[in-house]
Fold these 2 entries.
Entry 1:
Amino acid sequence: MNEAASKKPIGVFDSGIGGLTVVREIRKLLPKEDIVYLGDSARVPYGNKSAETIKKFGFQDANFLVKMGVKLIVVACNTVSSVALDYLKETFKDVPFFGVVEPGVKVAIKETRSRRVGVIGTIATVKSEAHKKLFPEGYEVIGKACPLFVPLAEEGMTSGPIAKSIAEHYLFELREKVDTVILGCTHYPVLKSTIKEVLGDKIVLVDPAEEVAKEVYNYLHVNRLLNGEGGNLDLYLTDIPPHYESLISLFLGERANNIRKVDIENL
Ligand code: DGL
């Protein structure tokens, strides 16, 4: 085993704190790994920005984690995974990257019976058709951007009549057309029960986070890079608004202690 390399932390980044839903799954499966998380909370959302800007922000996010000496990077942000994953892999050749698009597609292919799959995400994610491109021929993939889900989740309004009517507004068409829906945005897992209420029990919801955690585990195992004695979680945010503490717990599923503010634009 490469002792020094295995001790390095796992890097995870997202446009904001939504990516903590991915961290939660990684920590369930890999409790002894140290994790450095970067959330670009000062510039969230990415999902309604141009591809050029998303690439630039993604570069700065990854660059910060590379400088922190991580052993791999999980791009928890679906928007960056959809628009800029190949670019990041080419730019930072020495670091393995794990995106969230491919794992979601993999699970959806296993789950669907009708071969008609919905993908919900940000405007940029849906527009990129990144999921659609990964499905083999014979599958119908219907994308639906749900931009209001992000502020809804960030307001902590994950259930109740407002959340439900917004979900109805976005999802009523999908309900009739697909049997599986990929939650293609970091924020959506916290809205899962409302989304389920609207889509009904027969539609399978796919959260790529569990699959990403498995892929990271497999990679570390195969490459003998598992850390047996870590478990720290360091959160770096580009802004720390006052209401974030309770919101972080909502996404992460536990309280976070080490939260620091960081500037990633001038590294
Ligand atoms: N993290 C983003 C994603 O998963 C959602 C928030 C945003 O638009 O930046 O696509």
Note: The first strand starts at residue 10 and ends at 14.
Entry 2:
Amino acid sequence: MNFKQQIAQNIGLKIEGVNFEDMITTVQDSNFGDYCIPCFPFAKILRKSPVAVAEDIQNSILPNNVIEKTQIVNGYLNFYLNKQYVIESVLKEAKVHDFYFDNQYAGQTVCFDYSSVNLAKYMHIGHLSTTIIGESIARMCEAKGYNVVRINYIGDYGTPFGKMVYAYLTWGNEEELNARGVDYLQELYVEFCKRAEDDESYEEQARYYFKKIEEKDPQIYPIYQKFIDISKLEAEELLNKLDVHFDSWKGESAYTQELPRVVDILEQKHLLSESNGAKVVDLSEFNLGVCLIQKSDGTSLYATRDIAAAIDRYNHYKFNKMMYVTAVQQKLHFEQFFKVLELLGYEFSKDLKHVYYGMFSLPSGKIASRKGKQAVLRDLMEHSFNKVYKIVENRQFAIETKESVASKIAMSALKYNALKNERIKDSVFDIENCFSFDGDTSAYMQYCYARISSILRKAGKIDMDKVDLSCLTGTEVYALAVAINNYKEKLSLALEQCEPSILCKYALDLCKLFNKFYSTQKVISDDMQDMHAKIYLLNIIKTTLKNLFKLICVDAIEEM
Ligand code: ARG
């Protein structure tokens, strides 16, 4: 329901060039009504005081169902809506309206480049941010009708692989590699770095083997390929547990051969210059420094591969938009290669967007990483599952298994925590409280959802078409109706700002409103008419929450 539009339609007064709907805003303090029109901008046009304009508008209001009363306060005209009308019209519309799906952008394609882990290294807690922020925004796009292409631009290229191959050939063994996979690769890498500290020849060896990989040497390339397969499998397993699934895993290595082509098109446009033997695009006139295209040893760089990948994806998917989700530290990199694409004349460069986020970490000392500074994602996931399993171990479930409940609570807590704060802010993961059934947690929301589900099971099926909504009254119901009605607007806002935290807060508020309602009104009762109306309301809340959960990557649980 668009109440702003309904109010505007009932204003008889016409002011040249003014659309009242655009002027109506929501009132924060409900003591002053629901919506208001600030009348200051009209005062000039009409040469009247804002209060006099407010009176003119007030006097012109047509007979209607939606506006209950108006009041003028300091040049604002405040509107109080007819609560019963709002409750009934919102809930009626919500029943027929498919909340999750909206075809606003049907026919348009958006590519998402996220997760994009550097292979053969552990995925750590930082990878949760790119993976889950990317997934959440991708789901928002789907809910708005976009065709979404999910791309995991894996880091499957670079000297680290030369290091690992050398280490493996020098002191590694196949049996252990087969048995321990990524753990073993990581160990080889760490050991290499340690040994290389006091022996320069190691780096040289690494470069030698990396070159062999690049040349697809028949002896060396299969080893590298095996490393890639092992670490891809590991990443895939973790991503499956997080319920994130990619359409493409085309990574950096696929674009290394594109270097001559990229150099060629840049040269044609006279954009390349030399700097100490390297080839660069000078972007200083845009305050973006220089973008490195080719190293002095003739190899490609991160930006070169990204330029090639963007062109390839445009040719392949003809996207209307492409979003890259990474940490804020890569901001300059994206600004640079977006600019280079623009200078090359690619129209699509204006449709590229870098969505960046701040640091997300564990309090120090918690789940210490096996090696390195950050917590390993697999360890964090296991720790979380075990912790939650202990909490639910002694509960009895009829529909779900204990394992599934524990896993849904644990994984959702990890995901929700990667989303709930403004993405650009640094945040510390509250591992102590994040599984609590109380507070700003996903478990609290899942508990609300399970509670609603349990009431609905108890009540049995009702005929939603035969419910008399007029028995739904009171401030709690009104607040719920207003909140439910905000769904579309919140989704649009969250997508516009690429800000999942908006939906997290919205979902949490909706749960709180439900709890308030539930603590003040009895749902199951002998008064059938009253009970059916409340069951109807609960059904709508449940659908709304289910949709919101999907958007913020929280699993809905039928019982807890
Ligand atoms: N692999 C990179 C990293 O771990 C992230 C890649 C992001 N995507 C891109 N197209 N550059 O830092």
Note: The pocket of arginine is lined by residues 113, 116-118, 153, 155, 306, 324, 326 (CB under 6 Å).
